[in-house]
Amino acid sequence: MEYQMRIIRSKRRTIVIQITKEGKIVARVPRFMPEREIKRYAEKHGEWIEKNLAKILADKENAKPAFSDEEVRELIKRARLVIPEKVVYFAELMGVSWGKISIRRQSTVWGSCSMNGNLSFNCLLVLMPESVLDYVVVHELAHRLQMNHSSRFWAEVEKIIPDYKARRKWLKDEGGQYLDRLRKK
Asked: What is the β-pairing status of strands 111-113 and 16-19?
């Protein structure tokens, strides 16, 4: 099958094909790679391209509308009630302290922890399964022990959330559709 494909040439050594959220196919290729090789590569990966293109187009078609400002205010209000209680509970379990807790409308991250212990959480977390919310809280509190994502950091998370990988995967797989509804306007 022949594809409409945008080709981006650069100093890279390998070829990679991406499908954007808009359903456009992009091939990032080495600067001097011949067109026939790019075409052959695309044909070889045609099944993958078709499957992923169909999924992205279906997701676009089934996408929910953007959150209204009123909905976001309600989410923030709910999150201000729920998340601090979670922080208190898990911080005690982990033996850590924290600074301020902020609940924000964040379009790219679920949470953060500053060097001085201030925690920030995405208001959308109250729409997630409770197990996922717990994972994000524990993740941010683990930064009070390890300000990185080293194996020691993940060991701290795992002490409290043994199945953190499954919860993290859920957030990666499913969370984007919620973030997209904040980004729309």
From this structure: unpaired
pTM metric for this prediction: 0.69
CA-CA distance, 12 to 33, in Å (whole number)? 10
Nearest to 164 by CA among 138, 125, 144: 138
Partners of residue 16 on adjacent β-strands: 28
User: Phi and psi at residue 7, in whole multiples of 5°?
Assistant: -110, 125
Q: Is the pLDDT of residue 185 over 60?
A: no
CA distance 177 to 48: 22
Task: Give the DSSP letter of residue 128.
Answer: S
Task: Please report the pLDDT score of residue 56 as a whole number.
Answer: 83
With b for 16 or more beta-carbon neighbours within 10 A and e for fewer, the 126-152 pattern comes to bbbeeebbbbbbbbbbbbbeeeeeeee
Of 19, 42, 62, which marks where a domain is finished? 62
Number of domains in the chain: 2
Phi, psi dihedrals of residue 45, rounded to the nearest 5° = -105, 20
> Angle 130-142/164-183 helices, nearest 10 degrees?
100
Q: Identify the domain containing residue 44 by its residue range.
A: 5-62
Q: How far apart are CA 150 and CA 127, in angstroms?
A: 29
* Confidence tier at 120 by pLDDT (50, 70, 90): very high
**Contact predicate 98/142, CB 8 Å:** no
147 and 88 co-located in one domain:
yes
